[in-house]
Amino acid sequence: MLRDFIARSITDNDDFETANLNYWAHWLGLDSRPQTSDDFMAEQEHQAWDASSLLRQFVTRLDRAGEYTDLYVHSIWALMLSRRGLADADPRTARGLATRAHTLLDSDALPPQSRRELESVHYGLRVGGYSNSRSKSEGQQ
Q1: What's the CA dihedral at 50, 51, 53, 58 to 10 degrees?
Q2: What is the CA radius of gyration of the chain?
Q3: Which of 48, 51, 115, 135 is the right S-S partner for 105, CB 3.0 to 4.6 Å?
């Protein structure tokens, strides 16, 4: 059900992608403003959270995401797309993400959409110099 939600509701809809990231930042305590409604989720500009901190939280939790791995992968992918240069703002986190992505991609644990999104993230990190390794799936042509 979560995979269907990601594929049909969030993906390719900028408003929903923004709401997803804003909610994650709030839920993880990165937006310290008190919220009395869910209106904050629609904020496109002037978000009160730091993208590097959000990425760091995602990367830290990715290993133990379990049944939510697809949502974490999608949210990382969306964050990296929406904040160009994010890896350069925190190279240590970028290297950690590259390592975790490589491990996940070399397993059979990901469904096709999550695999595509994580391959995209991993490729971008490799191009940026944060990973020297290619996953098995990236080596297949």
Answers
A1: 150
A2: 15
A3: 135
Q: What is the DSSP string of 22-71?
A: HHHHHHTT---S--SSGGGGG--SS-SS-HHHHHHHHHHHHTT-GGGHHH
Give Dmax over CA atoms of the chain in angstroms. 50
pLDDT digits (tens, 9 = 90+) for 25-44: 998 999 888 888 888 888 77
In the block, residue with structure tokens 């919220």? 35
pLDDT band with cut points at 50, 70 and 90 for residue 141: very low
**Cα–Cα dist 86/76, whole Å:** 11
Amino acid, single-letter form, for residue 61: R
pLDDT tens digits along 95-115: 999 999 999 999 988 999 999
> Considering the entire predicted model, what is its pTM?
0.85
Residues 6 or more apart whose CB falls under 8 angstroms from that of 111 comprise 3, 70
Instruction: Say how far residue 82 (Cα) sits from the centre of its chain.
Output: 10
For residue 107 the two structure tokens come to 């397993």
- Residue 50 gets the label, from left (phi > 0), alpha (psi -120 to 50) or beta, of beta
